[in-house]
């Protein structure tokens, strides 16, 4: 059963159409690239999935719960659904006045985990996995760009999300740090998390092959898994 | 349960420390507004107590015609007792009145000049508790004037009435001042909260995107509003006390407000702060928050 289902979703900002009648579905554990030039609608698609934007029309279902377009639709527990989603952006978006540990811990606290012991049990393995053990007492300004992004990834993973959304996650990183981030994302995906990565850099698609969705001016141009021919939209 | 509270307090501290200058400015501004109001409350309390004292001393003196018989006196007494609002009567004979006058004046030459006792006998009426005010005393006096053999009726009710009018006017001014204080505190706390929110917008956006709700976004700001106003009220009390103590005893020294009133003052100020920050957060443009 699909984890996310988009049914004829459109999103407009005034006169500008960011997404135009897009229908897609995603399964748990999928590795998906969202490709396209600037303004193609990649970020809007991810924001709609992350419930940061409400579609103008159409329906988004996350884990069988709907986020309806327009007014008068049934209220859905957006906050609860958001907690199922980990988000990683190009900007690291770490809280500058908190340590690395606290930046990761806040995701646990938002989920209702308040015991410091439990939080440590959750955060410490993530620090190890992301290779930032020893940096937990530092503030974001004391970290390199790669370390910041790994701390942001640790925070995104702190609640064991079923969906991880990465919007240009390597945009501000050098190739070595970017490679580390992709390797970590791949490991996370291998554990059953649906990972959606929006990127301009198509060489990462060749290095980490998987399903690739291509958007152009808000229209879904192709949806192909590795080995399938591009150029046709395969309904799922 | 304690951990979320601790989180909010930690955030509160973080916010106050981050905007130390803004915090100090806000506390000073709110204190200035509250100080005016607190002094006004003290003036109101003093005037009100003075009026109460006048009322407690309120008596009506009913002077009688000369040469009344025992039967006439009994008739007058019965008529006076029948007036609504009369608690007790005390008869003051001509001799008692003269003796009292001599004691009060204590000037033998003046007493010699007056010669024979010119003072009339009288009844002194003590009103019941609910008639010990200007209107009550006046109504008793008006009825007493109509009793046969009564020559004149005197009372201090006019003073009470005027004092009550002054208190009434002061209470109206107090109400207006209270409204100004209310708006002032709401405005200052609201502006402070908005500035505070603006400087932490990135954090708010981030925490919201992680699914953080009231506890993580609104609660620290509400706590900040409550704390700022409560601290300001405590500072106001300390400053008012110092000013009042520094004034010389006499006309300008006011009696300080009792502890329960001060506690109420702090509590209401805190709630005003809470309300101010709540309005500020609730009316923020949505684009600020998501």
Helix/sheet category of chain A: alpha/beta
What fraction of the residues of chain B are assigned to beta strands by DSSP? 5-15%
Main pleated sheet of chain B: 4 strands, antiparallel
Strand count of chain B: 4
- C-alpha end-to-end distance of chain B: 28 Å
**Overall pLDDT level of chain B:** 84
- Give the overall shape of chain A, derived from the CA principal axes: globular
Helix/strand/pairing class of chain B, anyone?
alpha+beta
Q: What order do the strands of the largest sheet of chain B run in, or round the barrel if closed?
A: 2-3-1-4
Global Rg of chain A: 18 Å
Q: Work out the helix count of chain B.
A: 11
- Element-by-element helix/strand order of chain B: HHEHEHHEHEHHHHH
Question: Which blocks of ≥5 consecutive residues of chain B have pLDDT under 50?
Answer: none
Indicate the proportion of strand residues of chain A: 25-35%
The Cα radius of gyration of chain B reads 31 Å
In short:
By secondary structure, chain A is an alpha/beta fold.
What structural keywords apply?
heterodimer, A: 236 residues, alpha/beta, 6-stranded mixed beta sheet, 10 strands, 31% helix, 27% strand, globular, B: 290 residues, alpha+beta
Structure, described:
The complex is a heterodimer of chains A (236) and B (290). In chain A, helix 3 (100-110) packs across helix 4 (116-130), helix 4 (116-130) packs across helix 5 (145-157) and helix 5 runs parallel beside helix 6 (175-190). Helices cover 31% and strands 27% of the residues of chain A. In chain A, strands 6-7-8-3-9-10 form a 6-stranded mixed sheet, sandwiched between helices. In chain A, strands 2-1-4-5 form a 4-stranded antiparallel sheet, covered by helices on one side. The mean pLDDT of chain A is 86. With 236 residues, chain A is α/β, with parallel strands linked by helices. Chain B is an alpha+beta fold and 290 residues long. Chain B contains 11 helices and 4 strands. Chain B has helices spanning 2-18, 20-56, 70-81, 94-105, 108-114, 134-145, 157-199, 201-209, 218-246, 259-282, 286-289; strands at 60-64, 86-92, 122-127, 150-155. Chain B starts with a helix and ends with a helix. The mean pLDDT of chain B is 84.
């Amino acid at each position: 059963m699909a984890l996310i289902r988009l049914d004829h979703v459109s999103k407009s900002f005034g006169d500008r159409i960011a997404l135009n009648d897009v229908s897609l579905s995603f399964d748990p554990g999928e590795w998906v690239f969202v490709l396209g030039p600037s303004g193609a609608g990649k970020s809007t698609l991810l924001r709609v999935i992350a419930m940061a934007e409400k579609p103008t029309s159409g329906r988004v279902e996350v884990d069988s719960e709907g986020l309806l377009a327009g007014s008068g639709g049934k209220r859905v527990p957006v906050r609860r659904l958001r907690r199922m989603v980990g988000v990683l952006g190009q900007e690291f978006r770490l809280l500058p006045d908190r340590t690395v540990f606290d930046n990761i811990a806040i995701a646990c606290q938002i989920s209702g985990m308040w015991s410091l012991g439990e939080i440590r049990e959750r955060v410490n393995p993530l620090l190890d996995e992301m290779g930032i053990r020893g940096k937990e007492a530092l503030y974001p300004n004391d970290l390199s760009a790669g370390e910041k992004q790994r701390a942001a990834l640790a925070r995104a993973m702190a609640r064991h999300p079923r969906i991880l959304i990465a919007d240009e996650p390597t945009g501000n990183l050098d190739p070595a740090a970017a490679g580390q981030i992709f390797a970590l994302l791949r490991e996370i995906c291998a554990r059953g998390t649906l990972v959606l990565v929006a990127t301009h850099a198509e060489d990462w698609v060749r290095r980490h092959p998987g399903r690739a969705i291509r958007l152009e001016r808000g229209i879904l141009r192709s949806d192909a898994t590795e080995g399938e021919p591009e150029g046709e939209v395969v309904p799922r | 349960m304690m951990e979320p509270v601790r989180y909010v307090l930690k955030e509160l501290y973080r916010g106050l420390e981050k905007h130390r200058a803004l915090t100090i400015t806000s506390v000073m501004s709110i204190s200035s507004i509250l100080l005016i109001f607190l002094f006004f409350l003290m003036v109101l309390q003093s005037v009100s107590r003075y009026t109460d004292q006048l009322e407690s001393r309120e008596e009506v003196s009913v002077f009688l015609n000369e040469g009344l018989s025992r039967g006439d006196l009994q008739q007058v007494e019965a008529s006076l007792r029948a007036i609504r609002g009369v608690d007790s009567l005390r008869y003051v004979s001509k001799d008692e009145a003269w003796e009292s006058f001599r004691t009060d004046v204590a000037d033998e030459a003046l007493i010699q000049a007056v010669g024979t006792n010119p003072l009339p006998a009288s009844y002194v009426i003590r009103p019941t508790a609910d008639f010990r005010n200007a209107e009550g005393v006046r109504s008793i006096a008006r009825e007493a004037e109509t009793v046969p053999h009564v020559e004149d009726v005197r009372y201090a009710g006019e003073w009470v009435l005027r004092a009550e009018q002054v208190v009434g006017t002061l209470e109206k001014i107090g109400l207006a001042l209270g409204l100004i204080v209310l708006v002032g505190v709401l405005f200052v706390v609201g502006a402070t909260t908005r500035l505070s929110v603006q400087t932490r917008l990135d954090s708010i956006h981030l925490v919201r995107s992680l699914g953080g709700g009231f506890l993580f976004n609104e609660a620290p700001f509400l706590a900040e509003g409550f704390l700022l106003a409560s601290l300001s009220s405590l500072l106001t009390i300390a400053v008012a006390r110092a000013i009042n103590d520094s004034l010389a005893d006499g006309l300008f020294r006011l009696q300080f407000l009792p502890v329960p009133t001060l506690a109420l003052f702090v509590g209401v100020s805190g709630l005003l702060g809470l309300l101010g920050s709540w309005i500020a957060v609730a009316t923020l443009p949505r684009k600020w928050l998501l």
